[in-house]
């Protein structure tokens, strides 16, 4: 066996062992970890938090029976109180109350904060400000003069107008709004127990997307934000996991990240 083949064989062995488990960020559905809830001797519904440990039996509601949103809020509030009492020093984003779930057909309804801030005021025509790069008034002509020059303009797409910026901002905001809607909608999440993400994470509190990827004890491996979203969908929410390219998954990631805008990236932090 050549040295190259020996090296590749050793690397494959390493990745298939402990090192591979630590580096993995995805798993087949059959290998996906689940929160094993303690059974109810009376056959009542048992709900658990995404920590994989905290659970609560819902008296008078049998397994397989749905809860109303009011019942689900009451149960998840009790679960969160228990978790907080056991973890008084845990890092937590405090939010006063969960927002009213926004309705997709009501543009006047509750909205999440803008995902994209207004663009800075453009310099007036006739005034030179090279630090700002090309402006809408300079147009394509200005870019043509620089196309062969080794100049960093600061704009990926070259010259663009305020209308372009407005369209991009509106598109981004619509994406975030859809994530906001799904995050608050148990039916959209496919919940069988009327539980939605906001019940434990009001307004996406304590999701800390800036800390991913990081090692998660629930998985026993490094996880991405979408892995934890699916963990919560499968366990507290009692729904089916979403594919990585599912529009709902993408929208929820966008919404969660929008709530932490401006927070420094701290991947791996707990």
Instruction: Give me the side-by-side strand order of the main sheet.
Output: 1-2
In round numbers, the mean pLDDT is 73
Which ranges are low-confidence, i.e. pLDDT below 50, for 5 or more consecutive residues?
3-30, 95-100, 105-113, 116-140
- Individual helix count: 7
Relative strand content: 5-15%
Cα-based radius of gyration, to the nearest Å: 24 Å
Structural class of the secondary elements? mainly alpha
Number of strands: 4
Helical residues, percent: 25-40%
- What does the main sheet amount to? 2 strands, antiparallel
Rough outline: globular
| Termini Cα gap | 44 Å
Instruction: Give the helices and strands as they follow along the chain.
Output: HHEEHHHEEHH
Textual characterization of the structure:
It is a single chain. The chain is mainly alpha-helical and 270 residues long. It has seven helices and four strands, in the order ααββαααββαα. A hairpin with a 4-residue loop joins strand 3 (214-216) and strand 4. It is globular. The protein starts with a helix and ends in a 12-residue tail after the last helix.
Keywords:
two-stranded antiparallel ribbon, mainly alpha, 270 residues, 7% strand
């Amino acid at each position: 066996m050549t040295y190259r083949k020996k090296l590749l064989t050793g690397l494959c062995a390493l990745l298939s062992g402990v090192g591979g488990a630590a580096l993995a960020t995805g798993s087949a559905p059959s290998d996906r970890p689940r929160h094993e809830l303690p059974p109810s001797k009376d056959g009542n519904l048992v709900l658990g938090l995404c920590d994989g440990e905290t659970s609560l039996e819902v008296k008078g509601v049998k397994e397989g029976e749905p809860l109303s949103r009011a019942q689900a809020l009451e149960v998840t509030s009790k679960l969160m109180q228990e978790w907080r009492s056991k973890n008084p020093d845990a890092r937590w984003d405090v939010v006063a109350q969960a927002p009213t779930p926004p309705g997709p057909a009501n543009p006047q309804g509750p909205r999440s904060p803008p995902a994209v801030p207004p663009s800075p005021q453009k310099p007036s025509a006739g005034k030179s400000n090279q630090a700002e790069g090309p402006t809408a008034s300079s147009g394509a002509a200005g870019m043509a003069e620089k196309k062969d020059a080794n100049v960093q303009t600061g704009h990926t797409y070259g010259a663009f107008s305020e209308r372009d910026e407005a369209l991009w901002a509106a598109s981004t905001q619509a994406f975030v709004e859809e994530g906001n809607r799904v995050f608050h909608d148990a039916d959209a999440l496919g919940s069988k127990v009327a539980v939605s993400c906001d019940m434990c994470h009001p307004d996406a509190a304590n999701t800390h997307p800036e800390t991913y990827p990081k090692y998660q004890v629930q998985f026993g491996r490094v996880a991405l934000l979408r892995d934890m979203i699916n963990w919560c969908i499968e366990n507290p929410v009692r729904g089916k996991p979403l594919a990585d390219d599912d529009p709902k998954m993408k929208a929820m990631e966008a919404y969660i990240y929008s709530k932490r805008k401006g927070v420094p990236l701290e991947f791996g932090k707990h």
